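pinned: reference chain
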Amino acid sequence: MGSLGRVHSTQPANGHRLRIPGSSRWSRTHEPALDIPYSHHERRDGSGYPEGLSGEGIPLAARVFAVVEDYDALTSNRPYRRAWEHDDATAYVSERSGRHFDPAAVAQFLVMTEEPLSSEAE
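pinned: its structure tokens
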């Protein structure tokens, strides 16, 4: 594994270390947000990492973020490939609903992305 792969695979644990109870920067309101870096690579079917969590065992914030992050990665240009079109990316996400992604998170994401964003200030 290259150095980038090693860094990426340690991302969840590094994010989890941000949990410092008693710290002046710590607040109970941060808890759901800190679930995201630790658990967003988990998969609904249990094949993800770092814990191999599945289904409802994956924190809700991480389940939602996983859908959005994959869509964003697919629809963004990368040095090694061009960005995917919206329809292709949403089809990819939809096809993985229930295995990779939480079906409720996917369903809500698809509803939200059906409406075009307005770039005009109202």
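why pinned: The two ends are 49 Å apart (CA to CA). The chain has five helices and no strands.
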